[in-house]
Amino acid sequence: MAEKGELENRLRTTLRRKGLSYRTEESYIGWYKRYVKFHGLKHPELVGVLGVEAFLNHLAVNKKVASSTQNQAFCALVFLYREVLEMPFENLNSKRAKRKKKLPVVLSKDEVRSLMGVVKVGESKMVLQLLYGCGLRVSEGLRLRIKDVDFPNKLIWIRNSKGGKDRCLSMPSSLEASLERQVSRSRVQQEEDEANYEASRVYVDEALDRKHGGGLSRSLSWFWLFPSGKRSVDPRDGLEKRHHLQSSVVSKWLKAAVTAAGIQKRVSAHVLRHSYATHLLQNGVDLRTIQEALGHESVKTTEVYTHILHAISGKAQSPLDDL
Description:
By secondary structure, the chain is mainly alpha-helical. It folds into 2 domains: 83 residues, Tyrosine recombinase, N-terminal domain (DNA polymerase, domain 1); 198 residues, Intergrase catalytic core (hpI Integrase, Chain A). β4 and β5 form a beta hairpin. α2 crosses α4, α3 runs antiparallel to α4 and α5 crosses α10. The chain is globular, with a radius of gyration of 23 Å.
């Protein structure tokens, strides 16, 4: 058991050294524990690739988990064997579910207008408008720092997003005043933390913060644009800090707004991102520009919105209407 505890620590250390997000770290650690438990607490070195095959087949056949869940487990185990144990990971023969090609749910412009109209003015409306207005992933919106709101250039900067990439987006002119008010509210919170706590800390990459003498994690510019109402202990270093809002809070706001607006579609925060891309296409923006705005690796990913646009535009009009 001591060896397994040591291996878990090695896995966590390697994840952090590679610069992977805390969310990925917790996911990979979780899959490691489930994998070891599945094999009766045997060390992963003893079960090897055949053990990985058995575990993935178990997930697909017995647990019937989604293909995305299987892929997540696979990536976690590949990382464990290749990066931590430094063992060969070839000739894997496992039964995995075929990933379904689903079209995204998209709101019409009228539905978005109705949705935003019932959201209470304040932080909740600001977050939802920003997610739609810039096509952000919910994690990107909630991790924004004060420094990422560039008023002189009217830009929103997205740092260290999916795949470790940065990008910048045009700031919606209709949100400029609201963003200024939000920055002011965050500044007040940062000043209160500075006055009431020994150190007004927020999470900053440890190496980067150390390089600047520990000043970044206490600076106003690195403070969250949407700070949480309560401070809590950061499990990465055990220090009490101010974190940003959690995605669960946004989900509650959105669920209440969808109900109040009478929208019957299944709407998540990501639906606002899909709607942003589709509406840009409707406005004549080219696919390459939308790909860059969304931060997609390949334009193939972005092309899914053209399918939806063609259906909305009625280009393939039903012959029933000609009768």
